[in-house]
Amino acid sequence: MTASILIVEDEPAIQELLAFNVNQCGFKAIQALDVMSATRLINHALPDMVLLDWMLPDTTGVEFARRLRADQRTRNIPIIMLTARTEERDKVMGLESGADDYITKPFSPRELMARIRAVLRRRMPEMSEETVSAGGVELSPTTHRVSAKGVKLDLGPTEFRILHFFMTHPERVYSRTQLLDQVWGDHVFVEERTVDVHIRRLRQALEPSGLDILVQTVRGSGYRFSPG
Amino acid sequence: MTASILIVEDEPAIQELLAFNVNQCGFKAIQALDVMSATRLINHALPDMVLLDWMLPDTTGVEFARRLRADQRTRNIPIIMLTARTEERDKVMGLESGADDYITKPFSPRELMARIRAVLRRRMPEMSEETVSAGGVELSPTTHRVSAKGVKLDLGPTEFRILHFFMTHPERVYSRTQLLDQVWGDHVFVEERTVDVHIRRLRQALEPSGLDILVQTVRGSGYRFSPG
DNA sequence: TCGCCGCTGTCATGTTACTGTCATAATTCT
DNA sequence: AGAATTATGACAGTAACATGACAGCGGCGA
């Protein structure tokens, strides 16, 4: 689920610097020294974003950006332009060519990362924010509040996520492994028995209102949320 | 933070007239003569509102409005439609283009501004200039004054903006990133932890009146203003 | 022009609350 | 009963947050 970022930059030193920073921040850097190889890489697999140098040996960055924007397949890939000059004219041209943002060299790694994240954030849809209600429990992701039979209750982050997942997937049994994947995230190494403990904590929080019965154990299989 | 308003209008004379009036009223006018450049501008930075001509050379205003509404990122931007004749009103309404309001040409600057303010008040509360009051705190954007339980208190500019944003968006939890976007501005590069510090300063200012409890920490998520 | 002062963003350090793991008790099944 | 599975309580490590200190910046008046 980590975003891949195609870096198109002919200067090897800057190329490496960019790749290092991008990788450092948890993205996957894909490197191209010119437009031709960039095109090949894009044909092979679409990146989630393109970091594009303004000046390139064969085609200019602006021209390449224009081509990306023209092609239906690549139209929606965000582009950040790297430009050496600070003149307003270049900025305008960069934006005219369809770049989402631009950054002038020299730049700090921090600023670069901030811009990358900002652009990705603008493009990425938000997760579900609907208030869920079932079996006397109400959970609102936006206010991050939970109430059982009208009484506010206090959950830790993990218990909150488990409950949210359960309420949006009621009645169905989930194994510990599935819960780890869904609630903790795919590639996390956590002991399976840890799930038990968090289920316990969730039940404890629901206990005062008597709604702990909604979280049911299915021996040999896992757990289930059953609003009845 | 002044609201930025994107004006999409192909007639240069009217474009300028609109821009002049918008700027005159303390907003920031961003100008586009057609849908294509409007799209580019929006990709770069989201405006707080769109003033949209009904008839445009390339895509019609309605079509553009529909696209804005379809995209998760732009869904919540208020739109005001400009139409040439009264009879278009029904069409605009009937087509459900998603506009928040419409205004027929010719229009008086006064009327235009009134509608802009009305829509902003409805859709972007923190942009309007009205005095907000919640949980014993009163904040007046125009005079830049804040009082807690009747006692006047003294805030720095940033703390003022945070509090204003919070008061116009109560109960909802905002991540540090979201707060940076909303209070600092879209592409400002500031360390996330800086938010903590300003929250601290805001709480410190509220402390004497005991209202610092209104600013709540939601561990793992962000902060929330809860007037109870 | 200079120095003062308030505001800002960052860092280092202190504090708190959550997490994951284990050991052990309590179930349930065969 | 014995085996397998789950419940529960305790605990240490740690991630997330709070707080205080500080240097840089910009505005403002002397």
Quick overview of this protein structure:
The structure is a homodimer of 228-residue chains. With 228 residues, chain A is α/β, with parallel strands linked by helices. The first copy, chain A, contains 8 helices and 12 strands.
Helices and strands, with pairings:
The structure is a homodimer of 228-residue chains.
Chain A: E1 4-8, H1 12-24, E2 28-32, H2 35-44, E3 49-53, H3 61-70, E4 79-83, H4 88-96, E5 101-104, H5 109-123, E6 132-134, E7 137-140, E8 145-148, E9 151-153, H6 157-168, E10 173-174, H7 176-184, H8 193-206, E11 215-218, E12 222-225
Parallel strand pairs in A: 1-2, 1-3, 3-4, 4-5
Antiparallel strand pairs in A: 6-7, 7-8, 8-9, 10-12, 11-12
The structure holds a DNA duplex (30 and 30 nucleotides).
Tell me what you see in this structure.
2 copies of one chain form a homodimer. Chain A is of the alpha/beta class. Chain A folds into 2 domains: 4-123, Rossmann fold; 132-225, Arc Repressor Mutant, subunit A. Helices cover 40% and strands 21% of the residues of chain A. Chain A has 8 helices and 12 strands. In chain A, the strands form 3 sheets. A 5-stranded parallel sheet of chain A has the order 2-1-3-4-5, sandwiched between helices. The first copy, chain A, has a 4-stranded antiparallel sheet with strand order 6-7-8-9, with helices on one face. In chain A, strands 10-12-11 form a 3-stranded antiparallel sheet. The longest helix of chain A is centred in the middle third of the chain and has 15 residues, at 109-123. The A-B interface holds A 95-96, 98-101, 110-111, 114-115, 117-118, 121-123, 125-126, 142-145, 156-157 and B 37, 40-41, 43-44, 46, 72-73, 171-173, 177, 181, 186-187, 189, 218-221, 224. The structure holds a DNA duplex (30 and 30 nucleotides).
